[in-house]
């Protein structure tokens, strides 16, 4: 049954709240089932991600202007959140239209009894949008939590690790729009030729600040529908993830094991750097994810990728001492990609406590696969030391055959003498990311 963009967004937000579902796949499925056109898909996406990104701030104003707000039915609160987001953050939608749409949603979805309250609250917020109540600054963690819509527990974790000023800068960056980042497939085209094609299509883009062959795309809609994407002239990958492969410096003829490979970006980057010569073993524990790697490799014209199921913590014995490079992009909390996946911020911190042990077991399991003299890359898309440097420290204390190896990139990154790179969205303009390069000693 067809739905409006706002109804579809409400469905996604309700299921995220009720079922703790992640918005990415859910949003795509709901938009398809709702038979939205491209314009409404864009509105639906903006509403979903915008509300998730600013939910606690919207709730702060909803609670301020609502008597007995603790008695609001969850779905009515969701309707208010969508409407308040439009009033405060979407200049192209008149406030009166956002109020009217919110009231209409109440009536259409069986909450007519709440329509008067919704109308009153939204009108108050709209009337005061330029003079909204200030968030109290007496409690720094609470202030940051509300202002940047990040749960108290996560703000506290960040401030303990980074301090209040660093945390605020990072939280601010997490709530800013992130461009789509693409990497040129130099097996098929040069960066200059790709740039010319993008210009002809009037796609708004700019070369990445420090990564050659990488472009940031703005407002392009569905990137997979661009003909140059379908033709395999580029693939989507954040600069931070690409840097982890560049640090490894894979060469033509290498045997590479990408141990937690899905969705395949690092395998693609390695294959391109290797000029399509050598072998890349793209492994993942989930069979259904391997199809995406195969599809991507075919589109990009990469023939050296071999996919298969593998538990990275227990690789098959045949891989022992067989790989010039092993890439361990391990499962992590994902706290470095909040700006792209805003619902990650609502993960329960207690659920993340087991990750360092899993990460260590994967790194230890993969160590024997590296040839003497070969390289092991450990990477995550999180910013927490307990998942990054502390895992590496523990690994090095138990695996004396490995030692960190430095690498360098253009400014603003420069020389990484200790082989450990931490990237942050507010400093580098990339995802929050960690890369460590480890070299296995040659046998005597």
| Helix fraction bin | 40-55%
At the first level of CATH, the class of the largest domain is Alpha Beta
Question: What is the CA–CA distance across the termini?
Answer: 69 Å
CATH architectural group of the largest domain: 3-Layer(aba) Sandwich
**What ranges have pLDDT less than 50 throughout 5 or more consecutive residues?**
none
The total number of structural domains is 4
Strand segment tally:
14
Radius of gyration, taken over Cα atoms and rounded to an integer in Å? 24 Å
Instruction: Assign the CATH topology of the largest domain.
Output: Rossmann fold
Structure classification: alpha/beta
Number of helices, where a helix is a run of at least 4 consecutive DSSP H or I residues: 17
Walk me through the structure.
The chain has 444 residues and is α/β, with parallel strands linked by helices. The chain folds into four domains: 5-127, N-utilizing Substance Protein B Homolog, Chain A, CATH 1.10.940; 140-174, no CATH class; 180-236, Sun protein, domain 3 (Alpha-Beta Plaits, 2-Layer Sandwich), CATH 3.30.70; 240-440, Rossmann fold (3-Layer(aba) Sandwich), CATH 3.40.50. The protein is built from 17 helices and 14 strands. It has helices spanning 5-19, 23-33, 38-64, 74-89, 95-108, 115-127, 140-147, 152-162, 164-174, 191-200, 227-230, 239-248, 265-273, 287-300, 355-366, 389-398, 425-428, and strands spanning 180-184, 204-207, 214-218, 234-236, 255-258, 279-284, 305-309, 323-329, 370-380, 402-404, 407-408, 415-416, 420-423, 433-440. Strands 5, 6, 7, 8, 9, 10, 13 and 14 form an eight-stranded mixed beta sheet that branches. It has a four-stranded antiparallel beta sheet with strand order 2-3-1-4, with helices on both faces. Helix 1 crosses helix 4 (74-89) and helix 4 runs antiparallel to helix 5.
